[in-house]
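Please decode residue identities from the backbone states below.
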């Protein structure tokens, strides 16, 4: 296994998953959904959260724009 430099990625992150996240972002943009956090409202460092945790499910109903901090908090049980 290749050691990845720490850049804010989860320890479970696999480089090949990047394509799924890029497709999710493209889906959000194509559906003209604003790229701002649905929790705190900021528009910086936006990531796309998969609500059902299945990164292959890029249906619009499964995607939620979140800032990096809110996304981290959500996955760590800090916010709901």
């Amino acid at each position: 296994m290749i050691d990845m430099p720490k850049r804010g990625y989860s320890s479970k992150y696999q480089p090949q998953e990047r394509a799924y996240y890029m497709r999710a972002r493209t889906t959000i943009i194509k559906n003209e959904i604003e790229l701002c956090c649905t929790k705190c409202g900021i528009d910086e460092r936006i990531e796309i959260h998969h609500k059902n945790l299945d990164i292959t499910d890029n249906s619009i109903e499964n995607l939620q724009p979140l800032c990096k901090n809110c996304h981290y908090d959500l996955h760590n049980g800090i916010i709901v």
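Observation: The helical segments are 18-30, 68-75.
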